[in-house]
Amino acid sequence: MTEPAAKPALPDRLCIDPRSPHFHEEVLQHGIGIRFNGVEKTNVEEYCLSEGWVRLPTGGKSKDRFGNPMTVKVSGKVEVYYVEE
Predict the structure, then answer these.
(1) Buried b / exposed e across 26-44, counting CB within 10 Å, b at 16+?
(2) Alpha-carbon separation of residue 26 from 15, 52, 74 (angstroms)
(3) Alpha-carbon distance values, 78 to 4, 7, 22, 62, 82 (Å)
(4) Residue 31 has what DSSP assignment?
(5) Best CA proximity match to 55, nearest among 69, 67, 65, 66
(6) What is the rounded (10 degree) CA torsion for 74, 47, 13, 26?
(7) What is the model's pLDDT at position 49?
């Protein structure tokens, strides 16, 4: 059997938007789990561990001036981990 490749360390801040300077494709290739205030979240657009916030979509059809869905920044306890495959 082949040994799985080592996973890169999880960054302090990560965004799923490829235009963001906090986008890390090599980290996003692996399954990432995010727990916010003790609740598992699957719709996080961006997070920051050191500042303790996540950016979540608002859920409506509203768009920002660049045509991206609107998001809201929520503060709290953020835990990030790799999901076992």
Answers:
(1) ebeeeebebebeeeeeeeb
(2) 12, 23, 26
(3) 27, 20, 17, 26, 14
(4) -
(5) 69
(6) -170
(7) 96
